[in-house]
Automatic annotation (TrEMBL):
Taxonomic placement: Bacteria, Bacillati, Bacillota, Bacilli, Bacillales
Domain of life: Bacteria
Designated name of the protein: Sulfate transport system substrate-binding protein
Cellular localization per UniProt: Periplasm
Pfam families: SBP_bac_11 (PF13531)
One example of a Gene Ontology biological process annotation: sulfate transmembrane transport
Annotated source species: Cohnella lupini
Family classification: Belongs to the prokaryotic sulfate-binding protein family.
GO cellular component, one term: periplasmic space
Length: 359
């Protein structure tokens, strides 16, 4: 169910063509030639030669993909006998996109934070059209959610989005102008407000503006935001992803912080696409496709859950009962009108974020 749709169709098509060729040439008495033609229709890989993939990832998923890379290499070796190494480049989503489009990063796979960055690579001609329909869930193998990190015992009693706008609450944030993955954190209060009335953009503008007024730290990247809140003790609440918050709460922030997921919040959906032009040029398209396929297997989904990302398979989610908060999860595609419109409304030139007071 979770394999690439294009792979299934291609296999069926090739099978039909091969059968027709065999039938026609059998009637002409030249079956040997028919078999050779049919074989030429099916791409063959030389599994005796070692290969290498380059995966471009967003910072927030780097540790997860380190483990997935190792698991895929072992799985591929067992299936085919071929040795594969995977190099990984980590950075903010838009920086990765720009490096791929500029030719500095010859990534075979892009596993980025925001779909419009994959769209930009498609527009450059390196990814074929329809990348989002290659897999289920709009080619997002797992998800997380926008969440709050508070001090131990939650002294401000923060539970919902409105609590961030009350009294003297000070918010620590990552700046979406310098770190593109942080676009999710401003998109979340926007989506929350519009969930009450999808047509009331004035109310959503006011809500996000009020939210921004409580931002005391607008850090240049996610690590700087973590240091400001966890290490330096700045602010009352840090807005980040559930996966990042749970990772820290179970490691360096243990007994220092708590993770709060509001009852209604925005789903963060990292996405995957083979960078078709690069994978073809590097003669690794089959392996790159297989890597993307692998992300939708139970093994990879379990690895994701162990790194506090929400798996897509209910069977895996059931094994992690109590880890993920049971809340209403909004999505950019289902509850808004997609990232292209969201980018224009909030982050493009003339968008709301650019009109907010500098921090």
């Amino acid at each position: 169910m979770h394999r690439r749709n294009s792979t299934r169709k291609r296999a069926i098509f090739i099978g039909i063509i091969a059968s027709l060729l065999l039938l026609v040439t059998a009637c002409s008495g030249n079956s040997d030639n028919a078999e050779s033609v049919a074989e030429s229709e099916t791409p063959q890989s030389d599994y005796s030669k070692a290969a290498s993939l380059l995966n471009a990832v967003s910072d927030g998923t780097a540790e997860l993909y380190d483990e997935i890379n190792d698991a895929f290499v072992a799985s591929w070796l067992e299936r085919t006998g071929q040795s594969v190494t995977i190099e990984q480049s980590a950075g903010s989503s838009n920086v990765q996109e720009e490096a791929i489009n500029g030719g500095q990063l010859k990534a075979d796979i892009a596993t980025l934070s925001v779909g419009i960055d994959i769209d930009a690579i498609q527009a450059k001609g390196l990814i074929e059209e329809g990348w989002q329909q290659r897999y289920d869930y709009n080619s997002s193998p797992f998800s997380t959610a926008v969440a709050f990190v508070v001090r131990s015992d939650n002294p401000k009693g923060i539970a919902e989005w409105e609590d961030l706008l009350s009294g003297d609450v000070k918010i620590v944030m990552t700046n979406p102008a310098t770190y593109s993955d942080a676009r999710w954190y401003y998109a979340a209060p926007w989506a929350y407000s519009l969930d009450k009335d999808i047509d009331d953009t004035d109310a959503a503008t006011a809500f996000v503006t009020d939210f921004h007024q409580h931002v005391a730290v607008l850090a240049p990247d996610e690590k700087a935001a973590e240091n400001a809140f966890v290490v330096n003790g700045e602010g009352d609440v840090w807005v980040t992803t559930e996966s990042n918050a749970l990772r820290i709460a179970n490691s360096t922030g243990k007994d220092k912080i708590e993770v709060i997921v509001p009852s209604v919040t925005l789903t963060v959906e990292p996405i995957v696409s083979v960078v078709d032009g690069n994978a073809d040029g590097n003669d690794v398209r089959e392996i790159a496709n297989a890597y993307a396929d692998y992300l939708f297997t139970e093994e990879a989904q379990t690895i994701a859950a162990n790194h506090f990302f929400r798996p897509r398979f209910a069977s895996i989610t059931e094994q992690f009962a109590g880890v993920f908060a049971d809340v209403a999860l909004l999505t950019v595609d289902d509850n808004l009108t997609g990232w292209e419109d969201l980018q224009q409304a909030l982050f493009a030139d003339g968008g709301l974020f650019g009109q907010l007071p500098a921090k």
